Structure formats: C-alpha cells, structure tokens
Amino acid sequence: MPTRRKFMIGAHKRTVNIYIRGVSAPLFYAKVFISQERRYPMLEFWFNTQVPTFKKLVILIITLLICIGLYQYQPLPLDTILMFTGTGIIFLICRYFKLHFAQSNPTGLLYRLFTWVPIALLFALIFVKAMPNLLIWGVQGIAFMALAAFIFSPQSLFNK
C-alpha cells in the first residue's frame, strides 16, 4: 500500500493519518492532533501586537507568583537572582540586535549567535549556579529571567 496522508481540517484541530509504505494492513497507525493556536519561540509572545494585553498581564502575574512562591519555599541566592536577571536583559539586547542587524540573513552566523547566546547563558547558569537544588532554583531562575524581560520592555505590553 503506498504512503497515504489524510488531512481533515476541523474547527480547532488537524488530524493526520500515517500509513507505512509496503504494509498491506495499517499496522502502524498514528493520529497526530496539531493545535491551530499560534506558537511563539522563547518569550516572543510578549512582543507580538496580536496577543491581547490581558493575556500578557495574566502571564506576568503568574510568573511573579511563581517567583514569590518558590522564593518563599527555598530562596535563590541574591547573586544568582541578579545573574538570571542579567540574562533576561541580555535576551532583550540580543533580540534587538537580531531584529535590527541580522534580520536580512536569518540563516547567517550572526542571527544564530543572537538566538543562542541567551539560551546558552540560561543553561550555564542553571547547571552551574542552581545545581544544589536544580528543579526549584532552575524554575525560579527562568522565572526571574522572564520577569526581567517583561519589566525591562514595558512598551511591548501596551503596543497595539
């Protein structure tokens, strides 16, 4: 049986049926549900003008509550908080450079560099500074980085 793909587009989901080539009966059958909702890479929803301000505020408040709750449970050292906050600011700087200087060549080295520098810094901080309590301090650090990106780019909250 040749490879067949069946696409059914519903109101909110797409169904994809996959059959293996050369198998008479569909021994391998998979249904994949793909959401139609838009996905944004690494905090890009904050800068999108199509995302409602209310949704951005809710995410900001949830992130703040996660930071407060985890800090009350097991405090992250102050120097580590400042390093994660600095990573959030570096994310904003790299995003600015990526949009203004490297946008013309999205497969180039400069674009990739501006994409991977904040991610590499985040991983380095998580695995070097947050290693004693990896889960709690790692989530807390990522939340502090996101808060820094949210707080130091307030114009993105109200852009229409």
Brief overview, please?
Helices cover 55% and strands 11% of the residues. It is mainly alpha-helical. A hairpin with a 3-residue loop joins strand 1 and strand 2.
Task: Please give a structural write-up.
With 160 residues, the chain is mainly alpha-helical. The chain contains five helices and three strands, in the order βββααααα. The chain has a three-stranded antiparallel β-sheet with strand order 1-2-3, with no helix packed on it. α2 packs antiparallel against α3 and α3 crosses α4. The radius of gyration is 21 Å and the shape is globular. About 18% of the residues have low confidence.
List keywords for this structure.
single chain; 160 residues; mainly alpha; three-stranded antiparallel sheet; 55% helix
